[in-house]
Amino acid sequence: MSSDSRKIRLIMELRRSGISDTRVCAAIERIPRERFVPETLRHQAYENIPLAIGCEQTMSAPIVVGRMTQALELDERMKVLEVGTGSGYQAAVLARLCRRVYTIERHRDLLADAEAAFKALLIDNITTRSGDGTLGWPEQAPFERIIVTAAAADVPPILAEQLAEGGVMVVPVDHGRGESRLLRVRRGAEGLETEDLGEIRFVPLIAARGGG
Ligand code: SAM
After folding, report:
1. Is any atom of ligand 1 closer than 6 Å to the C-beta of 133?
2. Which domains are seen in the chain, by residue range?
3. What per-residue confidence (pLDDT) applies to 212?
4. Does ligand 1 lie within 6 Å of residue 205's CB atom?
5. Inter-residue contact 87 to 71 (CB < 8 Å)
6. DSSP H or E segment with residue 51
7. Do the Cβ atoms of 79 and 139 come closer than 8 Å?
8. 147 CB burial (10 A radius; 0-12, 13-18, 19+)
9. What is the CA 87 to chain-centroid distance, rounded?
């Protein structure tokens, strides 16, 4: 099966699994996932599975990228913070749907590969930083949208502070019951409102002071 046919099969699978936002599906269709995958795994780039990217990390399965991107309710004027650049694939999908993405990764080697992929694909609205993403990006705050692509023990308070009025954060939270829940946190006039969007699987978010 050609890479194009695999991609079409994947998009149909995402639609069947609840990714109904056509802009999100179009962005996933336009970003070549194989460019963010280690060469040895390129034949699996359009399978709906997470893939190892080095540094004991994975890039999320396309259905997870679709669910989280759809949950963000993006528009093209928004400034978005991503915590956990990983391969850079999620950031590249976001970059097609918003004005600018600020993305933070704690592993410099992963960040270097992600930056090379952005450059090769001529994506010029992503700004990167290496470091502890739980501290956010205070110089660029507030953000209309924040996405955390690793499971936190709770909604990271510094990130919540960096959310604009009316802003939305999507974050997997693992309360230690053996499963992560995908939460959507909205900053309303009355404070933060949290919605549970269901179960999701993620590697842990590691705060620098946690030493991991
Ligand atoms: N969004 C990524 C992609 O599209 O490939 C997938 C992210 S992967 C599931 C989680 C990433 O979060 C890993 O690369 C990990 O190193 C990073 N990470 C974990 N804790 C972090 C932190 N406190 N600050 C920044 N990055 C962190």
Report:
1. yes
2. 64-200 (3.40.50.150)
3. 37
4. yes
5. no
6. strand 51-54
7. no
8. buried
9. 10
